[in-house]
Structures are given as structure tokens and as C-alpha cells.
Design goal:
By secondary structure, this protein is α/β, with parallel strands linked by helices. The protein has 41 helices and 21 strands. It comes from Pycnococcus provasolii.
């Protein structure tokens, strides 16, 4: 761009710019912005392309009306008759009726069940969402439109097939909440409902997956799939034997887009962590950025300069950083990435003596997940915590490949339209926009941009203070733990109380109460990414959530008291989170969060609800009734428990049932339900009045403090305001120092802002700036889409191989004995060809073939072929029965006979080779049958177990090596693009050759192991001696540990 163009651009921007007098002053956006652009909707797009929500309504309204026509007849059924509908529909589906043909009736039944159990009647638009999900599409539904309830409609319908339905959520909290809440509708209708939580046992997982509908997180489901394909015993499998059938993915964009860049990996420990991580960290701290190395934040990579190489090699005393024997380059690059690209309280937090990753899209900690290739160890060295052992990949799969393995998948989210192309191209999932139940009345103000971050944060503080004084609830979205705590300190300075929700454990535990009360008058809530926060923000406060929490706070201490535990209930204590006073308060709260749960078993902490959550005090008479109901519930439930001990988890599960309307004959549940309804009614009187007050003030005000790399995440934050037609407003505060501007915005915007000569605390609202920011976000989205598409293309090559390997494993696990025998005989015959062609050159005359060496190779491969290895007369007789012995003389005669009468030397050689192949194939198959009979004589069924074991272990070991080789090839082929060769094509070709070799190696290794297997019956005295030796070693171990500790 030349200077003339830049001047024109600047003049245009100045004309567009509107500089407010004060940072806290808002002006309504011009009407043209609402018509032709802005965040509040794009009418021009609707005029040109048609209203997508209108198209959806037109397509589905006939079937929705059909469901409505059935409503009076279904409503007239009593509870037993309504439940009987499930068996009736199941029978029709089993008889051959398609699910599509029973959809209308099934939806009508599920709708009525929801009314009776939850008191919620799914709206017509929710029925549309359910139909879209059943058809294997993505339903885009605005925040607050009831996606959780929508999921039960297709889940109920597809569960009628009896093949299992998975409802996939992004975290344990949402899976548990959905299972306890809307899962009651399915249970009421006679379906079994399972729940998978982290830490569940194999038996618990197996039972949950056998249920008609299973609530599970995406990571638990993916890891169960991988673990199942590492099992060596069919009894250890947890997923259904027949495979997956149908799944509904909540927050589908988060799982299939945001998390698609990170594959799921199960690793095994390799060796002890190297001290090189610590040395590399010290060296990285000494090196200087832009001198010894450069950082590309866009590519998230680090490059060492020539000066850096020289300095590093001198300090380390090596001549080559890339020497494969020391691999210093890898250690140093990871240390530099840990230093420059992995920020504490942004990409990770330190919890105890452990580095825990923070999900950049959801703001949640990812327990148990680790960065690969040594990066996690480098971060541990940087933080000075214990460095965990290095790992080797045992199994891996991307979410893309995993979910494409389902015959049919569907998803729902509030923000899918921006990724419509990706969903179509990669997953074959069309995106359908579901109309809202009520018109959106939220106002999205234009972005405000500052020159510096300091100016931005001061303006945010001013805005929050103004809104708080006015009495409006405020939700502030930040992009990291660090930012959320920094803003909290700013608000402390001006005395504004706030709630803090970020990835820190002490805050995560109270998520539902924090989000549930974020709509109360004057409430200020600071939250890292709001994606996946499943509790609705209801203006005036959520009376139902508050009533449930009140009963929980009375129930758990009663449980503890009645069971004689001394721990007592944990209480909020000290400064309340609504009245945080900086770092000391946060540290005190963290200490409170470490209190063990009321049962004293330490598996899950119980922290009492903050008293400020409750809308009002409960009268003494009602509080007494609540306590009496809690005592009755605990007494009733304890009597039914084995051993008379009731766990906190079980108590909370039953409390969740008590707070709904599902029919029950449990005396404890009924007692709690009665007082719950009374408490909720009391709270509702307060919250409804407060809601009217908040609406009169303008509703929830949402503040964004930085544009995310994806527009979807920004839209999710905006969607928290204006729920179900409520009033609300949003505004984003930005600075030119924000990551998005810095990396993708270019220099033109900075140059233009500099020419304005504005102070750092003076904002500017400009259509051009907003457009440039939208353009930058689109660049980022395109950039990451290209990365995900590339990963998908490469992973598809590996996935074809993975499917074949896992299919072979499953066959080995479940195959009958005769199938295993045929497989082993095929392995034996196939390996003969490998040996023959590896040792005979058809172009060489047969007279020059070293037949003795060839026979020696076969004997080396299968010792049974050597007649001198017979152990005794019985063994000799068994060998003669199967005719397994080979000799050089027999082979020589065979070759001579095959060549006789042929004048063509090439044809004669081929005939001789074919004759040898047939001879050795016959002998090796006979040797296998001999070996099988020999082992079976020791113990019946032993050979079948051994064969299964050999197939599984050899497959796993060689697949593990294959994964490492494929990863190396993927890195290597990238450079071939400079030679005008397509890296993906090269990867496919080399990967295919490697896979073929791996399969051949599995075959050879398995049959060799079978031949070498020698079974001997162990005498009782040998078993007794081995057990005694083991007991002695176990007794000696504590003494060794004591000595080691004393040292």
C-alpha cells in the first residue's frame, strides 16, 4: 500500500470513527449497522440467502403438528399405560418398522413424560431440534433454548432399537447433571440410563454402556475405545461387543472442531525422565529471544538461530545439537517452547506438584492429559515440579476418526454456522438453524478498541462499576486464569464484589451455584471461557438451583452426623466469594476447598454453598421441616444400603431425583420433594420480583475482554445475554496489544491508530476496525481449519490401518477355536513364501541353490521340522502321525522331479520353487497341528489361550512401533514438497508399505511363537515354593523402603 492509499484509508477511518467522551459512555449503534452488519444479526444475508431458521420451520412444521395432534390422546394415558408405550414401540421396531415411522408417536410419548417428570413441555422448536438430531444433522440452537431437554427426544427414539445411544458432553459435571436431571424422563419410560465418570471401574463402565442410553464425556468415551482395543481378555471390554450405534454430541463444535487438533493418546511409561530436561531449562533461561532464537506465535513454534546453536553447543560441550545419541535439539526446543509459548495460568496451572493443562476453549482443567513429545516434561522442569516419566504411544485416535466410526452421529450447539463448511466436508454433517421460541431482544454494541491493554482494563473496570451501581448483573468473559484474577484485583481496588469462575479447583467446585446466580441484580461474575457452562443464567437468580443447593447443604451434614463421622461439613468460612478482597481471600478459599468430604473418604470434597447464593432466609418452621425430611431420607436410604453405609454420591443422586417430578415410592425422596417444592416456591417469590427489576434496568450485560481466535467462542459469550427473549446487551473491549491484533491484525491498523494520536485510555468505535477484526478472526479460523483438515487427511491414512488392526484384534478376542486354527494354518503357509523367496533367486540355476541352507532356515524358524529334536518315543510317534520331519534329501528329490522334462530353465526354476512352497507349506501346517496336539495333551484349551495371547501381544507391540514410524514419516515427507512431490501422497505410499510389512511381521512372529511354545505341567510343590518366595519378597519390601526413607 502506498502513502496516498494509506492517507485515503486513514481519512475514511477518521470519518467513521466516533470517539466517546468517556470510556463508560455507550451509544446505540446506527440503524445501518443493524441492517447490514454487526453482531446482532445480518439481515442482508437473510435477504440474499433466505432465512435459515425459516427454512427449518417450513420443513419440519408438518411433523411437529402431527406430534401435537397426538398430544390429547397421549395425555389421557395413566402412568402405567404411558410407560407401556415403550414396550409397544420396541416391539414394532423389532418387527421391522423403521425408527422414522415411529418418530411422531415416540416424540409425543417423550414430550408427555417430560411434562410429568420435569414439569417441562418441549416447545415445538425443541421438537424440530430433536428431529434434526435423529436425522444425523447438527441443530444450531441459541443459548437458553433447552438443548439438554432436546437430546432426550432422539435418545428415546433411537434407544427403541436396543443398540445403545450415547449422549456425549464436554465434562463430567454436565454428564452427571444431564443424567440425573433429564435422564429421569428416560428412566420413567422404562429405559435404563447409564453414566460414565472419570475414575469409574471397568464393571461400572460395562454396565453403563449396556444401558439403553449412556451419558459420557467425549474423552472418557474415546479412551474407553482405545483401552478396549488394548485388552487381552474379552471379559475386560467395556463397550458393547456389537459396536456403537448412535450418538448425540452436546457442544458439538467444541468437540469436533476445537478439540480435533489434539488426538487422544494412551501412553506407556518408557524410561525414567532424563536430567537433560533440567539442563535444557537452565540453558533456555540464559538464551535471549531474537538473538539466540526466534518465536512464531502464529505457528506456535521456535527456531534456534546460528548464534543460538553456537552458544548452546559451547555450553553443553557438544559438537552437534542434532546428534541422535543425545538429542539435545529436542530438549532445547521444548524448553524454549515452555519458556515462550506455555504460560502459567493460561495454558496450564500448577496444582500441588503437578502441571495440569487448561483447555483453551472451555477454560477447564484437563486432568490426566499431557502434552506429548517431551513438552510436558519441559514445562515441569520450568516450574520446578517433579518431572514425570517419559512415555511411548500405545494407541491413539483423533476425535474426527473416532466419531466417524459411528454409523450415525448428530450434534447440537449454539454456534455452528461459522464452521458449516468444516462440518459438511469432514463429517458429512449438515447444519440446520432452529428458530428461537421467542424473538431475540439482545443489543450487541460495537467493539471498543484502545491503543494499550492498560487503557482497555481501566475501561472495563469503569464499565463494570457503572453497571454494578445501576444494579444490572454483569458477566465478564476473560481468556485465561491470569486475566480473570488480574481483573478481580482491579475490581477489589474500587470495592466492587464479584464471583470468580476459572480453572482453579476451588472455583470449579462451585460452578453451578456461580453460573446459576449470575443473573441476580448487581451480581458481577468474572469467568474464563463460558463454552460448555451448562447452567442457564436466569435473570433474578435460579430459584430451582438455589433450592437444590439449600437441601444439599442440610442433607450432607445430617448424613455425616448420623453416620458418626467427625469431619463435619465444610463451610464457606472467611471472606465470601461475593466479597472477594484480593489474593489473600483466594488463598483462604483454596484452603477451604481442601477439606475432605463429609464422609471422610476423601474421594470428592464437600464445600457448603455460599450463603449469599440464597435469595432469602428460610423461616425456622420450614427449616425444621427440611431437617426432618433430611433425617427421614438418610434413615430410609441407609437401611437399604449394604452394610448400612450411605455414600455422599448416592445421597446426591437421590436428592436430584427428589427435586424433580418423576413418580417414586421412596419415602426419603417423597419427604425431600415436599420440602424442596416449598423452598423453591419461597425463593421463586423473591427471584421473580428481582427478575422484573433486572429487566427494567436492561437485563444481563455481557462484557468481552478480548476477541477469541474463533468467532464461535465470542458468540457463545454473547449468547449468555438475552436468554429466551429477555433483554440484554453485550460489548467487547479490545486493545491493539491483544494477541489477535498482534499476530493476525497486520500493521495497517496500528499505523492508523498511531495517526489518531489518541491517549491510551481514549477508545474509538469504528466500523473499519470491527471489520478488520472480523477479517483477522476469519484468517485465524481458516488457518486452524487448514491445520485440522491436514491432520484429518493424514489421520485418515492411519485410521484405515487402525480399523484393520482393531478388527483383527477383535476377531482374535472373540473367534472360536476352529477359526483360530484356520488363522494359524494360514500364518504358517504364508510365512513359507516369505522364507522361500528371501532365500532363492529364480534367475539363478537350481544347481546353484543351497538347499541345505534353505532347510536350515526352515528348521531355525520351526524347530519341530528337525527330526533330531524329538524328546522321547511318544514324541517320535506323534511326529510320525503328523509327518513333520524334513530333510535335504527330500527337498533335492522334489526339485529334481519338478524340473524333469522342462527345457526352459526359467519355467523349470519356477516349477521347482512352486514344488518347494507346497512341500514346506504342507510340513509347516503339519508342524502346527503336531504342536497343538502336543500342548493340548498337557492341558485342554491351553493352546487356544496361547494363540490368542500371541496374536494380541504381537499385534500391540508391532502396532506401537508402527505408530512411531508413521509419525516419523509424517514429519519427513513435509520436506518433499520442496521437490514438487505431494507430501500426503508420499505419506500414503510409504505408510502402505510399512503397514504391509507390519502385518507380515505379525504373521511371522505369531506362528514362530506358537512353534516355540513349550508347555509343562507345574507340580504342586513347585507352586508352593513359588508362593513362599513371593511372600518372602513382599515381606522384605517394607524394610527396604524404610531403609531408603531413612537415607
Amino acid at each position: 500500500m502506498n502513502s496516498t492509499q494509506l492517507n485515503k484509508l486513514t481519512r475514511r477511518a477518521v470519518r467513521e470513527a466516533r470517539v466517546p467522551r468517556r470510556a463508560a459512555t455507550h451509544r446505540r449503534a446506527p440503524r445501518t449497522r443493524a441492517l447490514f452488519g454487526g453482531n446482532g444479526g445480518n439481515v442482508l444475508d437473510n435477504l440474499l440467502k433466505g432465512d435459515p431458521a425459516g427454512k427449518t420451520k417450513k420443513e419440519y412444521e408438518e411433523r411437529v403438528a402431527a406430534v401435537g395432534k397426538l398430544e390429547p390422546a397421549i395425555k389421557a394415558l395413566d402412568d402405567d399405560a404411558l410407560r407401556a408405550k415403550t414396550d409397544e414401540l420396541k416391539a414394532r421396531v423389532a418387527a421391522g418398522t423403521s425408527l422414522d415411522d415411529v418418530l411422531v408417536e415416540a416424540f409425543a410419548v417423550a414430550r408427555e413424560a417430560s411434562v410429568r417428570v420435569l414439569g417441562l413441555r418441549p416447545f415445538d422448536v425443541q421438537l424440530m431440534g430433536g428431529m434434526i438430531l435423529h436425522e444425523g444433522q447438527i441443530a444450531e440452537m441459541r443459548t437458553g433454548e433447552g438443548k439438554t431437554l432436546v437430546a432426550i427426544l432422539p435418545s428415546y427414539l433411537n434407544a427403541l432399537a436396543g443398540k445403545g445411544v450415547h449422549v456425549v458432553t464436554v465434562n463430567d459435571y454436565l454428564a452427571r447433571r444431564d443424567c440425573e436431571w433429564v435422564g429421569q424422563v428416560l428412566r420413567y419410560l422404562g429405559l435404563s440410563v447409564g453414566l460414565i465418570q472419570s475414575g469409574a471401574t471397568n464393571e461400572q463402565r460395562r454396565m453403563a454402556y449396556e444401558s439403553d442410553v449412556t451419558y459420557v464425556t467425549n474423552s472418557e468415551l474415546g479412551f474407553d475405545y482405545l483401552r478396549d482395543n488394548l485388552c487381552t481378555d474379552s471379559d475386560d471390554l467395556v463397550l458393547r461387543k456389537e459396536g456403537n450405534f448412535f450418538c448425540v454430541i452436546d457442544e458439538v463444535d467444541s468437540i469436533l472442531v476445537d478439540e480435533a487438533r489434539t488426538p487422544l493418546i494412551i501412553s506407556g511409561e518408557a524410561e525414567k525422565p532424563s536430567s537433560s530436561y533440567v539442563k535444557a531449562n537452565k540453558l533456555a533461561e540464559a538464551l535471549s529471544r531474537d538473538v539466540h532464537y526466534t518465536v512464531d506465535e502464529k505457528q506456535k513454534s521456535v527456531l534456534i538461530t546460528d548464534e543460538g546453536y553456537e552458544a548452546a553447543e559451547e555450553v553443553l560441550g557438544v559438537s552437534d545439537l542434532y546428534d541422535p545419541r543425545t538429542q539435545w535439539a529436542s530438549y532445547l526446543l521444548n524448553a524454549l517452547k515452555a519458556k515462550e509459548l506455555q504460560e502459567r495460568d493460561v495454558q496450564y496451572i500448577v496444582k500441588g506438584n503437578e502441571v495440569v493443562i487448561v483447555d483453551e476453549f472451555t477454560g477447564r482443567t484437563m486432568e490426566g492429559r499431557r502434552w506429548s513429545d517431551g513438552l510436558h516434561q519441559a514445562v515441569e522442569a520450568k516450574e520446578g515440579v517433579e518431572i514425570q516419566k517419559e512415555s511411548v504411544t500405545l494407541a491413539s485416535v483423533s476425535y474426527q476418526s473416532f466419531f466417524l466410526g459411528y454409523p450415525r452421529i448428530s450434534g447440537m450447539t449454539g454456534t455452528a454456522a461459522t464452521e458449516m463448511t468444516e462440518f459438511e466436508n469432514i463429517y458429512g454433517l449438515p447444519v440446520r438453524v432452529v428458530p428461537t421460541n421467542r424473538d431475540n431482544s439482545r443489543e450487541d454494541f460495537p467493539d471498543v478498541v484502545f491503543k494499550t491493554e492498560k487503557g482497555k482494563w481501566n475501561a472495563v473496570r469503569t464499565e463494570v462499576t457503572r453497571m454494578h451501581k445501576k444494579g444490572r448483573p454483569v458477566l465478564i468473559g476473560t481468556t485465561s486464569v491470569e486475566q480473570s484474577e488480574f481483573l478481580g484485583d482491579l475490581l477489589d481496588e474500587v470495592g466492587v464484589p464479584y464471583q470468580l469462575l476459572n480453572a482453579k479447583p476451588e472455583n470449579v467446585q462451585r460452578e453451578s451455584e456461580i453460573v446459576g446466580q449470575a443473573g441476580r441484580a448487581g451480581q458481577v461474575t468474572i469467568a474464563t471461557n463460558m463454552a460448555g457452562r451448562g447452567t442457564d443464567i436466569i435473570l433474578g437468580g435460579n430459584a430451582e438451583v438455589a433450592a437444590r443447593l439449600k437441601l444439599r447443604d442440610r442433607l450432607i451434614p445430617k448424613l455425616n452426623e448420623m453416620q458418626g463421622n467427625s469431619g463435619g461439613a465444610a463451610t464457606s468460612g472467611g471472606d465470601l466469594p461475593f466479597e472477594k478482597k484480593g489474593k489473600k481471600a483466594r488463598e483462604a478459599e483454596a484452603t477451604n476447598a481442601n477439606i475432605v468430604n463429609a464422609l471422610g473418604n476423601g474421594d470428592r470434597p464437600f464445600v457448603a454453598t455460599n450463603p449469599a447464593v440464597f435469595p432469602c432466609e428460610i423461616p425456622d418452621e420450614l427449616l425444621k421441616a427440611v431437617d426432618e425430611a433430611c433425617v427421614k431420607a438418610v434413615s430410609t436410604w441407609r437401611d437399604a444400603e449394604e452394610g448400612g453405609v450411605l455414600s455422599m454420591d448416592v445421597a446426591e443422586d437421590r436428592l436430584a431425583l427428589a427435586t424433580e417430578k418423576a413418580p417414586s415410592d421412596d419415602a426419603g425422596i417423597l419427604a425431600l420433594r415436599k420440602v424442596f417444592n416449598q423452598v423453591e416456591e419461597l425463593y421463586e417469590e423473591v427471584t421473580s420480583t428481582e427478575k422484573a427489576e433486572v429487566l427494567s434496568l436492561g437485563g444481563l450485560h455481557v462484557i468481552g475482554t478480548e476477541r477469541h481466535e474463533s468467532r464461535r467462542i465470542d458468540n457463545q459469550l454473547r449468547g449468555r445475554g438475552g436468554r429466551q427473549g429477555d433483554k440484554g446487551s453485550t460489548r467487547f473491549f479490545l486493545s491493539l496489544e491483544d494477541k489477535l491484533f498482534r499476530i493476525f491484525g497486520g500493521d495497517n491498523i496500528k499505523n492508523m491508530m498511531s495517526m489518531f494520536a489518541l491517549e491510551e485510555d481514549v477508545p474509538i468505535e469504528s466500523g473499519m476496525l470491527s471489520s478488520s477484526l472480523d477479517s483477522a478472526q476469519k484468517k485465524v479460523e481458516t488457518y486452524y481449519y487448514d491445520i485440522r483438515k491436514s491432520l484429518f487427511d493424514y489421520d485418515q491414512v492411519l485410521n484405515i490401518q487402525r480399523v484393520k488392526v482393531y478388527k483383527d484384534r477383535r476377531t482374535a478376542l472373540f473367534s472360536a477355536e476352529d477359526e483360530l486354527v484356520r488363522t494359524m494354518e494360514g500364518y504358517a503357509a504364508g510365512t513359507v513364501d516369505d522364507i522361500v523367496y528371501a532365500n532363492i533367486d529364480p534367475s539363478v540355476p537350481s544347481s546353484e541353490w543351497d538347499l541345505e541352507a534353505i532347510v536350515g532356515k526352515f528348521v531355525q524358524y520351526c524347530y519341530v521340522l528337525d527330526p533330531t529334536t524329538a524328546e522321547n518315543d511318544a514324541d517320535k510317534a506323534l511326529r510320525e502321525e503328523f509327518d513333520v520331519d524334513v530333510s535335504v534329501e527330500d527337498v533335492a528329490k522334489l526339485v529334481a522331479s519338478a524340473q524333469s522334462g522342462s527345457r526352459d530353465p526359467v519355467a523349470a526354476a519356477e516349477a521347482a520353487i512352486d514344488a518347494m512352497r507346497d512341500y514346506f507349506a504342507r510340513k509347516t501346517v503339519a508342524a502346527y497341528r503336531y504342536k497343538r496336539k502336543f500342548v493340548e495333551n498337557v492341558e485342554d484349551g491351553l493352546m487356544e489361550q496361547a494363540e490368542r495371547f500371541f496374536v494380541l501381544t504381537q499385534t500391540d507391540n508391532l502396532w506401537k512401533r508402527h505408530l512411531e514410524a508413521m509419525r516419523f514419516i509424517q514429519q519427513a515427507v513435509g520436506l518433499r514438497g520442496y521437490a514438487q512431490r505431494d507430501p500426503l501422497t508420499e505419506y500414503k505410499l510409504e505408510g502402505y508399505e510399512l503397514f504391509q510389512e507390519m502385518q507380515a511381521q505379525v504373521r511371522r512372529n505369531v506362528i514362530y511363537s506358537v512353534y516355540q511354545f513349550k508347555a509343562k505341567r507345574i507340580q504342586p510343590e513347585q507352586i508352593a515354593a513359588a508362593e513362599a518366595e513371593a511372600e518372602a519378597a513382599e515381606a522384605e519390601q517394607p524394610e527396604k523402603e524404610k531403609v531408603a526413607n531413612n537415607k
